[in-house]
């Protein structure tokens, strides 16, 4: 059985020439985006997403543009606020507070990283937790950590990775309950919430990091591996337990001798194909799911704000 939503013709699970199934995050994200667009059209709700960009970081500009484009595809009211690099923390706080009070806006995302003069935690704390579609606000972090994810807005990258794990587990006929899950990386925006989500699905969870002794041995015991450290190819293919589900959240740009560059993940993908039961590629795996989950969170926030929700 291939895992497929009713709204897409591209199957999410594809066969590789080796042991592993490839989890096509682009197909999964496209299916979710279409589902959200259909839902918006049927409900008559117009979710509003405001994305705030301070400065002109090239990578951030690309991400912000992609978020706005997808929001429009979903039928959302999409607003982009571009602010100069010199914007002060107080000026940014005024804008956030204004968006908090705007009834047409259900989701607020302040693109990171911010200029050095602005404390990101002060900005995150100022966003209404009900509009915090990044899931970074301490209230949302706390709800997830205390087992109340259904009341929270959950960080998009781990939530997207979790969806891919569900799709892969269902496809392979594996149960999450009792599975050994290893998260490599302990960041606030991926590693820690990822561990909470796996725990909520009854996995036995280990968080490994740069100080972990014998990372290879820890990963070798994993039925599910989520790599999110930002170190190209740190997880070797022969560490992967036969049949394991591997989700690679790392996105690293490698310079090539010809002056070009290539994106690679934290997992040595070509090696891992021989052992994994299912694995996400980079690019085209966990990455595309992040924007789709942002749309999901914005729709959820709009539904919760609607009088008859
Ligand atoms: N910068 C890179 N990724 C993200 C993200 O998911 N949210 C925000 N706010 N900034 C980012």
Fold and architecture overview:
The chain has 309 residues and is α/β, with parallel strands linked by helices. The chain has two domains: 45-130, Rossmann fold; 155-287, 3-Layer(aba) Sandwich (Rossmann fold). It has helices at residues 25-43, 58-73, 89-101, 120-126, 138-145, 156-172, 191-200, 215-220, 269-272, 286-305; strands at residues 13-15, 21-23, 48-54, 77-83, 107-110, 180-184, 204-208, 224-227, 245-248, 252-255, 261-264, 278-279. The strands form three sheets. The protein has a seven-stranded mixed beta sheet. A hairpin with a 5-residue loop joins β10 (252-255) and β11. α6 packs across α7 (191-200). The radius of gyration is 19 Å and the shape is globular. The structure holds guanine. Guanine binds next to β5.
The percent range for strand residues is 15-25%
Question: What's the overall geometry?
Answer: globular
- The helix content is 25-40%
Rg over C-alpha atoms, rounded to the nearest angstrom: 19 Å
In order across it, which strands form the biggest sheet? Answer: 1-2-12-9-8-6-7
Structural class: alpha/beta
Assign the CATH superfamily of the largest domain. Answer: NAD(P)-binding Rossmann-like Domain
Please report the distance between the alpha carbons of the first and last residues.
35 Å
